[in-house]
User: Fold this.
Amino acid sequence: MSNPFESTEGIAKRTMVLFFLVDTSGSMAGKKIGAVNDAIFNVLPEIRTISDDNADAEIKIAALTFSNGARWLYDEPKPAKDFDWPYVDADGLTDLGEAYRMLGVKLSRNAFMNDVEGSYAPAIFLMTDGEPTDDYKKELEKLKNNKWFHVAIKVAVAIGEESDVNDDVLVEFTGTPEAVLRAHTPEALSKMIRLVSVTASKIGSQSSAVGQGTRQEAFTDELNKQEQEWEPVNSAENVDEGWD
Amino acid sequence: MNSFLHFHVTVPGASHIRKGAACQDFSKSVCFGDACAAAVADGHGDIRYFRSGTGSRFAVEAALKALREFVSREESCCPPDGMDEKLNQLKKNMILNWNRKVARHLSVHPFTPDELAPLSENRRANLTRGKWVESAYGTTLIAAAVTPASWFGVQIGDGDCCAFRSDGTCASVPKEPGLAGNVTTSLCEPDAIEKFHHFFEAGVPASVVMSTDGVRNSFLSREHYRKFLRKIVSAFSAEPYRATKTNLRDFMAEMTEKGSGDDLSVAGMVSRGEPPA
Assistant:
């Protein structure tokens, strides 16, 4: 006798979306945008491996750049194996508010979060080197009411010197200073992008977490553990070899 | 003979098998007198909830014990008035039963250094001081019962519980609003009673089916998931019980591989009378 359940349709794996929000304003031109381009390009094979090795979840990537306005690189999140990073240039202002607004639109079951019913909370990785030039606070407040944003792993990398980047802006985004990292050098940025992408991909596709903040907590715990291994790269000793 | 048949199936998740991890789900179903009940629970897994496989078993046992006592106390024709209050007390009893089981287990089996070592310093310190020890056993819980005149269900955490009426429509136990992206509420939370929801309906459904979240998470949409539940009900209504249970278990073992990779549990009660719509 055949198994009557074999004809069941609609079975599929869960997904986790990794969002890159990349500042491509004029001040990112040169070494900074070069480091971002190289770092993201170089981390993709590792993310693909994590996705392939994770039999429970497929990792997808969505990338948004912002300068004068903001734009998505693709119309929908791409499976890691299909995501190519098109080297981006830097020019213009820093419309972080517009980036937040567009992110909020896509963090929805009717948009980028429309995959398998129980897909994992996204991980959102913001990279910026300067002060926003639009009214970002209004859009961030709206974003904080978005349930996907609420449960997402959030991390920000401040690219550049302390005087250039307003850490408060980044802490407002992540909700915790522990998830705000600072890259003094191109090498440090490259390692951070790798560290954050890999850690978020692993932690983000774990099974259920109790409470809204605990996946973020698990992520920052893991990040802190991993960071200690390469702390010297980001130390003040290397500032002279920084972004200029 | 009870007018309902009951069933429960749990299979370990494909990802857990690969990692050599224990199954965190538990399920059970039972009849007592004219009533039938079922419960499923999903332990949270990962290093922070390192005894959640035990916690899920305790949750199901605690729930069925409380349900048995509840049904034996209530008359078979439960008036809707006052049911909210009675079900709130039922949920409190379930939490109490679970906490007692956890406390008893912990007193006999204190946390070991190996269990505590992988935790963050903060968490380890709390558990060592006896704070929030229930978290190590953290689990969701869904339980439901049908009586000759009504059905009711309770739920804390993710997962689903639906009753299919004779006309084919469906009623569900409500969940905590805002759960998304695999975040759940838990029996281990200090304010668990606030997040523990219930549903009551007079009248006897054609079936009540519940599942842990790994089942729904294996489907592209709610519609696909509901079709699967209807298929389960239809199979138990029409086919021999043992064969159906075996077929369901075999299929769920495949489903976890192709779908969520998570532990899967399905349990419920199906009327022996008219086939479902």
In short: Helices of chain B lie at 14-19, 52-73, 83-108, 113-116, 121-128, 213-216, 222-238, 241-258. The first helix of chain B runs from residue 14 to 19.
